[in-house]
Design brief:
503 residues, alpha/beta, Aldehyde Dehydrogenase, Chain A, domain 1, Aldehyde Dehydrogenase, Chain A, domain 2, 2 domains, seven-stranded mixed β-sheet, six-stranded mixed β-sheet, 21 strands, globular, binds nicotinamide-adenine-dinucleotide
């Protein structure tokens, strides 16, 4: 089995070309620097050292990419769905073939542990396969005959799409947005997060090697306030698929207003895991730990608030603390590592600031609550106990390996606490009382809920949040509702009476 030294050696090989050439844009099938030749530095959160330079795009780069996507649209739209299916499967094959390269680069660029990134790379391939298989039927509609008309519905791709992605699991999230867009027949301009640009470039290379026509998928790197903004304001971009913070989503909505942009938002979360005394507590403990401390806690669906029934709280929290203290923090390239560094110095400062907030609010820090090591943006996995739901540590998305625990007396209080946040992405409920589970999930304000389970994605099911956690759903056919327009065609089946004016 590969170890840290193997991974370091392989990574050095994979990064060599990025160190030399930087991460360029890719427009109409060509690698290109930013129009004004500007670039920025991309450093690794593991050792804080420079990895490569990255094209810093402006409105002019976005213009060029949007024009390329517009010009490529008619041919891609009109291509037979079966042909698109073939290309998308070839992309999935390409991802599988380069999965280790993707996983190692992602580890170094984001700080995410290899054990999770190796799976995330393959999930990216599954996303392509899933939507590849749906491509041939994407346009299918219904026939809704009336007495005088044969009413037909069809679906047509909406046009060039802007895809804006965040830095947490950036590879997997990019595939999750781009695969359905391509399957629907849309063309794409992708702006990846400035903090993690490398695997977006690898993904696009794979796509073009797999036979994707030039211009169907374009890449502009850069910052949200210029490249991202220009994309959301561009008149040729018909819709924006965005994953990121809730406040950025609200800015994008404003920016897109003049061009009446269709938007799809996957935003933040402060998701409750609710554990009742009658639950299988061993499994609940495993799941609660996994859902907040995997992926460095930089996970929109993380269970960042533990609501725990009073009668079992002391024992559960003490077992939790014991396990949290044993989580293996270290170099994400090491297959044994469970927790890597946070993405950036800025994010390290944000997450660490909550250690002081917790103290000043009167919560207990039962595990962690400090930096780990000297170099890199590591924090220890952290557990806040005895919190109250109105504290900032219970209300704000910390987006790190930090769990806030709150006690409840009964089901009614648990539900009140669970819903008393601005977010509503996921919820996790642990009870062996099925009636209670059904009652509770019915009232829980979240787009996705799991009972007696951690988050297990099934691609045909809808993914998305309510309240400040998002607008719209992905997955299954729901993705096509966003990337396609419904069209109605009414065909007269006889000579019905047409109202006559001026006769
Ligand atoms: P972010 O909102 O800061 O940035 C996301 C992307 O938006 C980046 O590419 C950024 O450059 C771009 N951007 C920033 N300002 C912009 C603007 N004005 N116009 C256009 N684009 C702009 O988010 P982040 O810090 O990169 O990611 C973390 C956030 O993402 C967390 O809140 C997390 O919960 C959320 N997230 C949600 C989901 C989900 O499925 N709901 C999944 C992953 C991450």
């Amino acid at each position: 089995m590969a170890d840290l030294a193997d991974h370091e050696q392989k990574l050095a090989g994979y990064l060599k070309r990025f160190r030399q050439d930087g991460v360029m844009n890719h427009i109409a099938g060509e690698n290109c620097p930013a129009v004004f030749g500007e670039s920025f530095n991309n450093a690794s959160p593991v050792d804080e050292e420079h990895i490569c330079s990255v094209a810093k795009s402006s409105k002019d780069d976005v213009d060029a990419a949007a024009i390329a996507a517009k010009e490529a649209f008619p041919a891609w739209r009109d291509m037979d769905g079966a042909a698109r299916k073939k290309v998308l499967h070839a992309i999935a094959d390409g991802i599988v073939a380069r999965a280790e390269e993707i996983a190692l680069c992602e580890c170094w660029d984001t700080g995410q542990a290899f054990r999770f990134m190796s799976k995330a790379a393959l999930r990216g391939a599954e996303n392509f396969r899933f939507f590849a298989d749906k491509a041939p039927a994407a346009r299918d509609g219904q026939s809704l005959p009336s007495a005088t008309l044969m009413n037909l519905t069809t679906r047509v791709p909406i046009g060039p799409i802007g895809v804006i992605t965040p830095w947490n699991t950036p590879f997997m999230l990019s595939t999750w947005k781009i695969a359905p867009a391509l399957a629907a027949g849309c063309t794409v301009v992708h702006k990846p997060a400035e903090l993690s640009p490398i695997t977006a470039k690898i993904l696009l290379e794979i796509a073009e090697e797999a036979g994707l026509p030039k211009g169907v998928w374009n890449l502009v790197n850069g910052f949200g306030e210029d490249a991202g903004r220009a994309l959301t304001e561009h008149p040729d971009i018909k819709a924006i698929a965005f994953v990121g913070e809730s406040k950025t989503g609200s800015m994008i909505m404003k920016q897109g207003a003049d061009t009446l942009k269709r938007v799809h938002f996957e935003l933040g979360g402060k998701n409750p895991v609710v554990v009742f005394a009658d639950a299988d507590l061993d499994r609940a403990l495993d799941a609660a730990i996994f859902m907040i401390y995997s992926l460095n806690g930089e996970r929109c669906t993380s269970s960042s608030r533990l609501l725990i029934e009073d009668s079992i709280a002391d024992e559960f929290i003490s077992r939790l603390a014991e396990r949290v203290n044993k989580i293996k923090v270290g170099n994400p390239l090491d297959p044994k590592t469970e927790l890597g560094p946070l993405i950036s110095d800025g994010h390290f400062d944000k997450v660490s600031s909550y250690f002081d907030v917790a103290k000043s609010e009167g919560a207990q820090i039962t595990a962690g609550g400090e930096r780990h090591g000297e170099k890199g943006f590591f924090v220890k996995p952290t557990l806040f106990a005895e919190a109250k739901n109105d504290m900032r540590i219970a209300q704000e998305e910390i987006f790190g390996p930090v769990l806030t625990t709150i006690r409840f007396k009964d089901e009614e209080e648990a539900l009140k606490l669970a819903n008393d946040v601005q977010y509503g992405l996921t919820g996790y409920v642990w009870t062996n009382d099925l009636t209670r589970a059904m009652r509770f999930t019915e009232k829980l304000e979240a787009g996705m809920i799991w009972v007696n389970s951690e988050n297990v994605r099934h691609l045909p099911t809808p993914f998305g949040g309510v309240k400040a956690s998002g607008i719209g759903r992905d997955g299954g056919d729901w993705s096509f509702e966003f990337y396609m327009e419904q069209k109605h065609i009414g065909l007269a089946t006889g000579y019905h009476k047409i109202p006559q004016l001026g006769v």
